[in-house]
């Protein structure tokens, strides 16, 4: 396994997961595990996401807001990390929690329950054991798939979303009364 230390990183499809670490002085850095290498970045995972999104013309705040709006979720939303390569990541904990691991579900081959925790088998046949219930973890994977499908269909012009349906009903009722 090759190790690289870098000052920045752009998220691509090869990212399997990233996790926050601390050096011996207490400074945060991110361990990024790709299919064939491990990279260390001298930023937190959320800073890696923000930098990567900015480099492709997006913002982290915009990506979070879009995910919350499209999925109607408030917490632990998946993030479209690279719309050009359709990379969507999800955190195991809150977006800013220092113990959160960010996964790319494209590389998750299998999940198993072991004593109330989750064993994750990745595409390169490595594995991780995390202190999260398998049902919670698999629900997060489903949220990613839903967001990925919605954003892909919107980009291709095949998805229709009804917004503020309650207001539309009120307008129809008002228009009907005026005609009488």
From TrEMBL:
Q: What processes in GO biological process is this protein linked to?
A: establishment of competence for transformation
Task: Read off the InterPro entries from this record.
Answer: ComK (IPR010461)
Q: Which domain of life is it from?
A: Bacteria
- Which Pfam families does the record cross-reference, listed alphabetically? ComK
The molecule here is called Competence protein ComK
The beginning of the lineage is: Bacteria, Bacillati, Bacillota, Bacilli, Bacillales
